[in-house]
């Protein structure tokens, strides 16, 4: 990945505010008791937490945001569905791809709230005709999901288009070329 093309807009600032304090870990590692290693263990946890917070400020999911062992990256520690999102920027548009395998188009709702794009839906459990099923293992998760994306100022919200194909929702947002970034050079004076 070419980091020079990385755009710093934080698409997830509203979503991060909504999710503050809502995560409940599924399991926690056993912490050492009062031994000589305890300060090191605490420092390790503090560094992990600091790194996660830093990544989230840039709209990048933290290390603890995904359940380990779910190859599809579809779950979070809170046990809620959280579809993966790719956001690409082009000169004339933004393209948002939301991965929602197993979700039908009719179960997805796309809406605008001010300058925020709300993506909501539900992954429904398949009904089985065999009521005698005795599951040996269940890894798939079902339920509702919600993603909130803060749109950049140059996104033309009145021209948003969306398509759904093979479990991927693609949202296209044209860009308004007349909106210029709020950037100006500040002269430096010598004393």
Automatic annotation (TrEMBL):
Family the entry assigns: Belongs to the small heat shock protein (HSP20) family.
Q: What species does this protein belong to?
A: Litchfieldella anticariensis (strain DSM 16096 / CECT 5854 / CIP 108499 / LMG 22089 / FP35)
Q: Which InterPro entries match?
A: A-crystallin/Hsp20_dom, HSP20-like_chaperone, Small_HSP
Pfam families hit by this protein: HSP20 (PF00011)
Domain named SHSP: residues: 76-191
Query: What is this protein's name?
Result: SHSP domain-containing protein
The domain of life for this entry's organism is Bacteria
């Amino acid at each position: 990945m070419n980091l020079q093309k990385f755009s710093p807009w934080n698409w997830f600032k509203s979503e991060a505010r909504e999710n503050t304090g809502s995560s409940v870990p599924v399991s926690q590692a056993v912490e050492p008791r009062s031994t000589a290693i305890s300060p090191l263990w605490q420092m390790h946890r503090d560094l992990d937490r600091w790194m996660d917070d830093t990544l989230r400020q840039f709209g990048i999911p933290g290390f603890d945001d995904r359940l380990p062992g779910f190859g599809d990256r579809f779950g979070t520690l809170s046990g809620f569905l959280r579809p993966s999102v790719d956001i690409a920027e082009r000169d004339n548009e933004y393209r948002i791809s939301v991965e929602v395998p197993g979700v039908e188009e009719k179960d997805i709702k796309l809406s605008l709230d001010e300058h925020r794009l709300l993506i909501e839906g539900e992954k429904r459990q398949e009904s089985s005709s065999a009521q005698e099923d005795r599951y040996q293992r269940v890894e798939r998760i079902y339920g509702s999901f919600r993603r909130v994306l803060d749109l950049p100022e140059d996104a033309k919200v009145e021209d948003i288009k969306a398509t759904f194909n093979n479990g991927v929702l693609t949202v296209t947002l044209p860009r308004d070329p007349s909106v210029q970034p709020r950037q100006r050079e500040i002269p430096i004076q010598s004393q």
